Amino acid sequence: MDRKRLLNLIKRGEGTKVDFKQKLDLDVESGRKEFAKDICAIANSKGGRGYLIIGIEDKTKKVIGIEEKKYGEEQIQQIVSSRCEPPIPVSLEFINFENKKLAIINIYDGPQKPYQLRENGAFYIRRGSTTDTMRKDEIISALQENLSLNTELCPIVRSDIDCINTNLVYKYFKLKGIEINEDNLISLMENASIIIFDKDSNKYMVTFGGILVFSDLSSIYIPHNMIKIINKVNKNFKETIVIQGNLLSILDSCEDTLRKILPKNYPVNGIFEGIRNAILYRDYTLSYREIEIKLNYNSITLISPGVLMNGKNISLSQYSKRNMWIYEKLITLDNKERFLDSGRGFLRMKRYFKGRGRLIFVNSIRENSFKIIYPGANSFK
C-alpha cells in the first residue's frame, strides 16, 4: 500500500471494510478470538478488499505506531486459517507513516462468503464501524451468492502463475478434448479456476486447488500439503520422511517409498487405498496438520486431517466428499486410474487384509481427524 492510499483511508475513517487498532493482543486467547472475529466481519462485508490498520487510535485517528517485531505474517495466517471457515486470504505489510511504523492486514475479497468462526459457528459482519453477528437473511443471501463456490477456489495471496507446472495444465485440457496453446492458456486456466485475477494488484493469483494439483512447489504456498512417514520398522531408511510436491507426485512418491520400506509380502495396496482417500478428502483448511503415516511393528496408522462425517458411526459407502474440484482434476490426470472408484475404498481395504488381519477405522471428532489402523509389519515377516 502506498502512502497516498493509506492517508485516504485514515481520512475516511472506520467503516465496513476498514478498522483501526492501537494494538493487537495476539499473545492471549481473548485477543486471538477478537482478532479472528474482526477479520471474519470485514471479509463478510461487501465492498472489495478490507484493511485492518494497526497502530492508530480508533476514536481520534491519532497515529501511535507499533513495534514491528511483535507482528509476524506466519502467526497471523495461522490464527486466521485455524479459526475461520473457509480460510480467509490475508497478508501483512508494514509502512512508515508520520515517522511511525504501522502494520496493515489486507483482507482480500475471496469468493467464499459467508465466513464463520470455527469455535462457535457464528457469522460476523461490519455495521458501520462496529462488528455484529449476521442476521439470518444476510447469511442466506451470502450463501445464495456463493453456493456454487468452494474452498479450493480461494486465491493464494502472493502466489504467482510461474509456479504452475504447465505440462500438467496442457495434459489436463488435452485429456478433456480441449485445444490448448500459448494464446488461450491463461484464459483456459482462469475459466477452470486454476488462477484468478485480482483487480487490486492487477495480477493473477493461483487458487488453493490450482496450487495443490498443478504446482510442484505447493509446499512454498501450502506448507501442510505433505505426507509425513514415521518409520520404525526398517533401519535402511530414515526415521522421518517428508514427501511434498503436487498431489499426484506426492501419491506416486509415497507409494514407491512404502513399497521399499515394508516387507515384500505386506498388502501395501490396502494402505495405498487409504492414502488416496486421504489426499482426496482430507480437510485442507487445517493448515497446522499434514497426512501422517506411522509405521510400527505392531500396527500401521494412517492419520488424515478432518473427520469423515459428524456422527458416531462410519458408513463404508457414504461419507462426506470434500474437495470435489480437486477430485475432478485428479481422475482426469491420473493415468493409473486410481481415483475412479474411490467411493468404495473402505471395502477394498478390508478385502486386501481379509484373513490377514483386522482394520480399525477411527472417526475422531475430538481430534478432528480420521484414522485407519492396519496390521503391523510383524504380521507379514
UniProtKB/TrEMBL annotation:
UniProt-listed InterPro entries: RecG_C_sf (IPR038475), Schlafen_AlbA_2_dom (IPR007421), Schlafen_AlbA_2_dom_sf (IPR038461)
Protein's UniProt keywords contain Protein biosynthesis: no
Top-rank taxon: Bacteria
GO molecular function annotation: ATP binding
Pfam families per the UniProt record, alphabetical: SLFN_AlbA_2
Keywords annotated in UniProt: ATP-binding, Nucleotide-binding
Schlafen AlbA-2 domain sequence ranges: 14-134
PANTHER family: GLPR-RELATED TRANSCRIPTIONAL REPRESSOR, SCHLAFEN ALBA-2 DOMAIN-CONTAINING PROTEIN
Record-given protein name: ATP-binding protein
